[in-house]
Hints:
By secondary structure, this protein is mainly alpha-helical. It has 2 domains: 8-195, no CATH class; 206-274, no CATH class. Helices cover 73% and strands 1% of the residues. It contains 12 helices and 2 strands. A two-stranded parallel ribbon has the order 1-2. Helix 11 (219-233) runs antiparallel to helix 12. The longest helix has 36 residues, at 238-273.
Amino acid sequence: MAKKNLGEMSFLDHLEELRWLLIRGTIAILACSAIAFFFSDFIFDQILFGPKNPNFVTYHFFCELSQQFGLDKSLCVSEINLPIQNREMGGQFSIHMWTSITVGFIVSFPFLLWEIWKFISPALYDNEKKYASAFIIISSLLFFTGVLFGYYLIAPLSVQFFASYIVSSEINNSIDISSYISLIKTSTIASGLLFELPIIIYFLTKIGLVTPEFLRKYRKYTLVIILILSAIITPPDVLSQVIVTIPIMLLYEISIFISAAVMKKQITTTDLTK
């Protein structure tokens, strides 16, 4: 099937579609944010401040893992001395608002994907448009998996490392609430977006910007970058770095497979049309 003639829509029509996409997306985020605003006790006490609790599930996991590898209790966390403070008059209200918006963005992500799909669907073949449900489901699962990965792995490892890092005994850690929340939000959202790598590679391959050969060529450089990032955000031990690196490299390898599959299908389609 031929693509829909994009010439049927003027530049202003495209801008109008984009404007309504942004309006509907903003309304969805604000609606979810309003709901999250009234669950502040649970969001802050149970979720956001969870990684600063030594009883957090991740710390128990690492403790048991270290003992299984014969490392005694080298990865066990018995105490996290991380007092949180607010130094601005409207600081807590501002954190409450922006955290609610962040939660609203995460919760409404599937709807945002649906809006993006509707916007790009006119440029797709008719037989490609039927994959809308698969695109939404897979992209949402990848995003939420990345959010959980960031929350349960990267965030607690970062909190534990920075809370215990001491450059001088003369310095006491008393972390500002905005700094702490920023670390948690960055860890979770960045991981969620990073886990969209296979989807991004799929579309980049479709438009010819990426090839499987390109991804294979720069695989070793990607591994070095990931190892450096893992060393920065995790405690300075090999086990933690490996645990963070493995799923990210697995995503990269899956992206290579997806890129190769897309290229193969495009070549086959081109041969059949000749």
